[in-house]
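Course assignment 3, question 2. Fill in each field.
Student: A.L.
Task: Predict the tertiary structure for the chain below.
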Amino acid sequence: MKKIITLYVLCFFTTYVSFAQVGIGTSEPKEALHVAGSTSTIRIEGLSNENNSHNSGDGKMYNVFVDSDGDLSLGTQSGQIASGPNVTAPVVVQTTPNSGLNAAELYQKDFTLTQRALVVITYYVSVDFKTYDGTANIDDGRAKVAHNYFYLGNGTTADTTKAYGMTSTVYSNVNCDTATGFVYNSRSATISLDPGTYSVHLNGAVFGGDLTSEAAFRATFGDIDRLDIDAIYL
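Answer field:
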């Protein structure tokens, strides 16, 4: 009976040791799983092109991520999240009656990140300058400034404590009523963001120097516009 118990204990101990450290290509594993050999590889079929929607194949390489529990997963492929126009109808922004600063939101665009990423946000927007009432081209010779910039939000509310992608164009004209057409503002900003839902809130602002009512004007934003959002997953 003692021999049987001893044999059982020996078999149990041997089995435990073999499960505690497994060696492939080596009889002396140093870790729980030790794959030896200078050209050794590991295949996880759950991450293959056939079994995982994040793997598009085509001979490309994809990032594998590990979470706080040590679980492995295939990362979302870096690339374009959104691209296209977003101003549904051109937005008119007037200065104050004495040509002071005024601003308005042109659009909101939502996007979602599945992982931490560097997000590249690029916008293009047309600007058309007119007199304050919009009836004529500008010919007073004073400088007119149109700004564009965007805030980030949570898909609902913009965080107005920090503006991104600020750019401006200056327009002036004198003794001429023939200058027509659009000028354009464009800018790109790269921002590091954690997983979650975000929104881009593009704003347009106008300023005539805060002088007199004769310097007041309006700008029409977004007859032509485009927004590109690209994610570089980390």
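Instructor remarks: The chain has one helix and 13 strands. The longest strand covers residues 217-233.
Grade: pending
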